[in-house]
Structure formats: C-alpha cells, structure tokens
Amino acid sequence: MNIIGIDVSQGESHATLITEEAEKVAFKFKHNKSGFQILNSYIRSNTIIIFETTGVYSAQLTAYLKSKKVKFYELNPLEAKLRMASLRRNKTDKNDSFKLALLVLGATQLTEIKNHCNKQSALPYDSLRILSLRYKQLIKCRTRILNFLRSSLELTFPELNQIFKKAYAVLALQVFRMYCHTDFLAGLTLKMTNRVYQFVSRRIHKGVIQSYCAQVWLAAKDSYPAVPADSLEIEIISEYCDEIESYNKEIAYIQSKLIKTAVRLDDFKVISSIPGAGQLNSALLLVVILLALIIINNSMLS
C-alpha cells in the first residue's frame, strides 16, 4: 500500500509519498489540470491519500479524487491538529504532509481506514450543505446591513428602533423609507396609515398597520433628531432598505430550496416530527447532525 499525505494550501499543495518499500518522496502540485496530472503520476491502485479539509482550498482536490475514484481520507482541522501534535513530540520533520501520511502508516485499525475512505463523500447531502452555507451567508450579510440601518435611524428617528424589533419586516422597511425622519410626519394622522397601506396591503392587515403607525406618530411628537430632514442619511437609509429587501427575497428563495431538498431525505422526516421543530430548523439541524457524524466517523483514524 502506498500512502500520500497532502498539505493543502491556496492554489497548490505539498505532498509526501511513502511507498511499500518505505521510500519517502516529496513533491508539490498546483490545483489545476497540469498539477493534478503530477499528482496522478504518483497514484497506484493501492494508494490511499490523506489530507486535512480546508474548505474551498481543498474543494478542487476533493473533486479531482472523486472523479478518478481514488481512495482518500479527509481529516477535519481539529482532529488533524491534535493527531499531528502527538507526532511532533517524536518527529523532527517539519513537513505536515509527511506527518499526515504517518497517521495512516501508524494506524492500528488500517482495515477500518480503508473501508472508511470516501465514505463521507458518498453521502447525498452535498446540495443540502451548500444551501445551508448560502443561507447562513445571506443572514450574516443582511444582519450587517441591518446594523448600518439602525445606526442611521439613531440619527434621524431613534424611536423607530424600539418600535420595530424586526427591522427586516415588510412593514418596517416601508415605514423607514417613508417616515425615517420626524419632519416627514408633520400634519399627518390617518393619511399616514393609508399611505403605508397602499404599499403593503396585500401582506398585512390594515389594523396592524394602523397600530404601528399610531406608535410612530406619537413617538415623532417627542423625538429629537440629530440631523435635518435634508441630510444624506435619508437617502442612505432608503438604500439600506432596498438592500435588505433584496436579501429578504434571496433568503426566502434559499429557504424554499433548502426545505425542498431536505424533505426528500428520510432523516428529515424523523427530525421534523419533533414538536415545534419546523421545516427550516429541521433542515438546518440535519446539516449540523450530518457534519457531526462525519467528524465522529473520522475519529476511527486512531
């Protein structure tokens, strides 16, 4: 059995081959077609490759090995760090690719390692994982803009931050666009409700709109803005609202796709049967559980 340990970096990797004859061969290759041809020249039918999962940096390598049906083993970063740390007490070689190869060479349960190779890559959950990651990215981006929006509102009409706890909601965004400064409410009473209702009437009951508008109108009477009504902050607030609305649409689309992908899996049915779980939370929880299982399975390398 030949073993190749690979230390993955951005765009390229350093590798160490340990042959059946205990020869040690160091080489490096780029993450492109010509680079993978170099890697392929060291691969035999009995070769096992081991490397640390490094997110997007190792994605090309993983895709190549899958396409070539090469046996490979991915270690999660924490496990790789702990296991290689134990080797550092006994080894002086600074090459992490060599240490990774030694993990396989020194394993006591080699049969289990062989059987486990590529096991996690065969799971039909890649789409779910990608959608979950995208969902979290969008939520993070929207939260960043929401924080900017709330900071601007503190200058123009700070009470709005207390009235609208969910600043990304349809009604909140519309009120922010129309009445983000106290001067914009001068002389308005019922007209305010009717104007907002024209934009959001299809989604929200008029009674709810009227209740919020009353709170805004009363707050404006005692509010003291830090900037005038013609400040550039007003235009910036409107732009923030547009950005958040755009994120809302994309988040809703990803949520729908995430749930549709998850409902096809038997594991989802079990998780969603928990009272109060909900479809979205069940789909996200399923991804967490699957990643945890991969880490647990990887612990067989010992």
TrEMBL record:
PANTHER family: THIRD ORF IN TRANSPOSON ISC1491 (PTHR33055:SF17), TRANSPOSASE FOR INSERTION SEQUENCE ELEMENT IS1111A (PTHR33055)
Domain Transposase IS110-like N-terminal: 4-158
Family annotation (Pfam families): DEDD_Tnp_IS110
Transmembrane segments: 283-301
Organism: Lactobacillus amylovorus subsp. animalium
Keyword Transmembrane carried by entry: yes
Designated name of the protein: Transposase IS110-like N-terminal domain-containing protein
Record keywords, A-Z: Membrane, Transmembrane, Transmembrane helix
